[in-house]
Design brief:
Blueprint lengths: L1 H13 L2 E2 L26 E9 L6 E19 L2 E10 L2 E11 L2 E6 L6 E2 L2 H6 L5 E7 L6 E15 L2 E23 L2 E21 L2 E4 L3 E10 L3 E7 L2 E5 L7 E5 L1 E10 L2
Antiparallel strand pairs: 1-7, 2-3, 2-17, 3-4, 4-5, 5-6, 6-8, 9-10, 10-11, 11-12, 11-13, 13-14, 14-17, 15-16
């Protein structure tokens, strides 16, 4: 029994792993004085370094660093919003296109349930809803947390030892404005930088021998820093340290790597 549950939740936890992307090496940095919380201007770009956060210590691994870049393309209309395409490159090859939109004091991503930059295993892709929809991940005027996603899944089975184990789960994601301050990144100061916290919560239960067994919630956090007149200057997906508690069994521990992404240079057109 414990072996089965351990396998199930290690698979779930391992689904949240770092998707690292990199590319363009243009070195121009162009500041702007528009007092724009997140500039969305065609031709602008941001180049980042990405560092792995060790699963055991949570500390950065200096031997595991790569670069990525995001180039803002043209705008289009997606589900009623003006969306700007962000082409993401790694090793000078385009790996995906993300879309972002801005309305007043809010910033939205055209996301699958999990924000871009975090990759999922095939199993988690089968469990978590894959349709894209607009998700508000930043609200500069917020005074309380807001709902990014709120849903549930049923009718899903996890294959194990030739059997299909039924699983259901409530899935929620919440956003919160943490603080606005000056952030120093790679020796550069970015005034008026706002930190946002995103919390993904899974409340799963599995069915064994006709009995539904609930387990403690699984929480995964992500942090985003957005600097005025620049855009996203830092993201952090902390190393996972999950403790799954099932009634009647020893707690199940799982640790997984995280990452931190920091701005190296940028150009705003």
């Amino acid at each position: 029994m414990k072996s089965l549950l351990t396998s199930v939740f290690i698979i779930i936890a391992m689904g949240f792993s770092l998707g690292i992307s990199s590319c363009s090496d243009d070195t121009t940095t162009t500041p702007t004085t528009d007092n724009d919380n997140m500039p969305l201007k065609t031709g602008s770009y941001h180049v980042y370094s990405i560092t792995r956060l060790d699963s055991l210590t949570g500390n950065p691994d200096p031997s595991s660093v790569t670069n990525d870049s995001m180039v803002i393309g043209t705008s289009s209309i997606k589900e009623g919003k003006t969306a700007f395409a962000f082409d993401v490159f790694r090793n000078n090859e385009k790996i995906r296109t993300d879309h972002y939109s801005k309305e007043g004091q809010t910033v939205w991503g055209y996301w699958q349930f999990i924000p871009p930059g975090i990759q999922l295993t095939d199993l988690i892709n089968a469990i978590v809803p894959q349709t894209r929809r607009w998700s508000k991940f930043a609200d500069f005027a917020a005074t309380s947390q807001w709902i990014i996603a709120d849903t549930s899944i049923t009718g899903v089975s996890i294959p194990f030892n030739g059997q299909n184990i039924p699983l259901t789960s409530a899935i929620t994601m919440r956003g919160k404005k943490v603080a606005t301050a000056t952030e120093v990144i790679k020796g550069t100061s970015f005034p008026n930088t706002t930190k946002f916290e995103l919390t993904l919560t899974l409340k799963p239960s599995i069915t064994l021998f006709g009995t539904q067994i609930p387990v403690d919630s699984i929480n995964v956090k992500q942090f985003v820093w957005i600097a005025q007149n620049v855009g996203i200057v830092k993201e952090e997906f902390p190393a996972l340290d999950l403790r799954v508690v099932v009634p009647g069994l020893e707690p199940i521990q799982f640790k997984g790597d995280g990452f931190v992404r920091e701005l190296l240079r940028y150009s705003i057109k």
